[in-house]
Every structure is written in C-alpha cells, then in structure tokens.
Design goal:
With about 80 residues, the chain is of the alpha+beta class. It has a single domain, classed as Ubiquitin-like (UB roll), CATH 3.10.20.860. Helices cover about 25% and strands about 30% of the residues. A 3-stranded antiparallel β-sheet has the order 1-2-3. Strand 1 and strand 2 form a beta hairpin. The structure holds zinc ion (ZN). The site of zinc ion has 8 residues, from loops.
C-alpha cells in the first residue's frame, strides 16, 4: 500500500510519520470536529499533512452537515 508511505515535510524537510489528529471545521454558526483523522506529522516542526482525498471528504461531509443544520432553525434562537 503506497498510501502508507509518508512524504517529507515541506517546511523543514524531515520525514513525516503517520499519526492521528483531530480536524475542526467551522461555518458561521456551527463547528464539526472529527477525531482520529490519519495524518502525516512532522516530528521536527509539528506540521501536519492530511492526505488530499481525506481532506476533501472531510470538508464535503462538513458542508453537508452545515447545510442540514441551516435548514433546521430553532423556533427561538438561543443566544
Ligand atoms: Zn517539519
């Protein structure tokens, strides 16, 4: 599985390692946090890289959740 190969950090050039991270996506009124997202993390500078396909599906899923939330407005908004 070539998908398990890690790439080099574009900031400092160190070899990244697979780790699990959490990603938070927000819109004007809501936020979605996904924990346990596989990402390549740089052991030297801490930069994290989420594979493109995953980043794409995460943001797609978040958009879907946000659009559902927007159609369900509470009768009286709780500030
Ligand atoms: Zn780095």
């Amino acid at each position: 599985m070539t998908s398990h190969d890690t790439r080099k950090c574009t900031k400092c050039g160190a070899q990244t390692e697979w780790t699990l991270t959490s990603v938070e996506m927000t819109d004007e009124q809501s936020s979605v946090t996904v924990n346990g997202v596989p990402a390549m993390a740089c052991p030297r500078c801490g930069e994290e890289y989420i594979p493109g396909l995953q980043a794409m599906s995460l943001s797609k899923a978040a958009e879907e959740i946000f659009s559902i939330l927007r159609t369900t407005q509470p009768a009286e908004a709780v500030a």
